[in-house]
Amino acid sequence: MAPSLWILSLVVLFMVTGTESAAPRRPVDVPFGRNYAPTWAFDHIKYFNGGSEIQLHLDKYTGTGFQSKGSYLFGHFSMQIKLVPGDSAGTVTAFYLSSQNAEHDEIDFEFLGNRTGQPYILQTNIYTGGKGDREQRIYLWFDPTKGFHSYSVLWNLYQIVFFVDDIPIRIFKNCKDMGVRFPFNQPMKIYSSLWNADDWATRGGLEKTDWSKAPFVASYKSFHIDGCEASVQARLCATQGKRWWDQREFQDLDAYQYRRLQWVRQKYTIYNYCSDRARYPTMSPECRRDRDI
Ligand SMILES: *[C@@H]1O[C@H](CO)[C@@H](O)[C@H](O)[C@H]1NC(C)=O
């Protein structure tokens, strides 16, 4: 073998083995079809740039959605979304992870549309073992319809973190020691959808969808998935503890991230189930830990 070829194959070998242990903390942007497939109303999804960007269309007949081909136990998942611009009142765009069984686990981002010029609400929720009722609502610090922003979830055995443009907006720590179930053994798929929810979404259902403005269009790109792929039935991840998101630096937020989280909470929170005494006279145990942040 010529020396240059030999060096080349060494480099290639290094790159191949290198991807196993390297830390791909930066999202890798891949086309839609690599990780995802449409779920329903296939004709309401439009593709651009060879499938690296897509649009979901909602009209009075139907919304649409897509889901990951694989199921995952832990990992880092993100996509960039440009929400329905203009009059989006009554519409909801969602990005969530969910397991597919009766006592299911779920990690939700839901974007509640609004009348032109009025702010979207980002609602997040977490279900563990079929129990939800953990809504938090915030306004965003930018107009999410003007450009693409990244929305991501980091999920490991220690915490679930919701990020908006890499700023943590919510953390759900593993409070198993307090008797709170934490998602750890039910693989989840990643989903996104756009649909009409004008019975509750905007100002509690007062603002209805204006169908004369249809179609409502949400745009997506950068379909990053870096998770431990598992069959739907699997209860374990084969590489548990060995991937970058399991490592110490991802087991908790750092001081800078906690400051950012505080900033979001103090300036942008509209609603937090942890402080809703009317609805939940006894505070959920995980809220006690949350309060210390
Ligand atoms: C819509 O705008 C109204 C008025 O500014 C605001 O009260 C509400 O929180 C906004 N968002 C939603 C989804 O209702």
Automatic annotation (TrEMBL):
Signal sequence range: 1-21
Primary location: secreted
Matching Gene3D superfamilies: 2.60.120.200
Glycosylated sites: 114
GO biological process: cell wall biogenesis; cell wall organization; xyloglucan metabolic process
Entry keywords, A to Z: Apoplast, Cell wall, Cell wall biogenesis/degradation, Disulfide bond, Glycoprotein, Glycosidase, Hydrolase, Secreted, Signal, Transferase
Record's keyword annotation contains Cell wall biogenesis/degradation: yes
Localization terms from the record: Secreted, Cell wall; Secreted, Extracellular space, Apoplast
GO molecular function: hydrolase activity, hydrolyzing O-glycosyl compounds; xyloglucan:xyloglucosyl transferase activity
Residues at the active site: 106 (nucleophile), 110 (proton donor)
Domain of life: Eukaryota
Domain GH16: 19-220
Xref: InterPro entries: Beta-glucanase-like, Beta-glucanase/XTH, ConA-like_dom_sf, GH16_AS, XET_C, XTH
PTM statement from Swiss-Prot or TrEMBL: Contains at least one intrachain disulfide bond essential for its enzymatic activity.
E.C. no: 2.4.1.207
GO-annotated cellular components: apoplast
Pfam families documented for this protein: Glyco_hydro_16, XET_C
Enzyme class name: transferase
Family: Belongs to the glycosyl hydrolase 16 family.
Function: Catalyzes xyloglucan endohydrolysis (XEH) and/or endotransglycosylation (XET). Cleaves and religates xyloglucan polymers, an essential constituent of the primary cell wall, and thereby participates in cell wall construction of growing tissues.
Name by which UniProt lists this protein: Xyloglucan endotransglucosylase/hydrolase
Organism, scientific name: Paeonia lactiflora (Chinese peony)
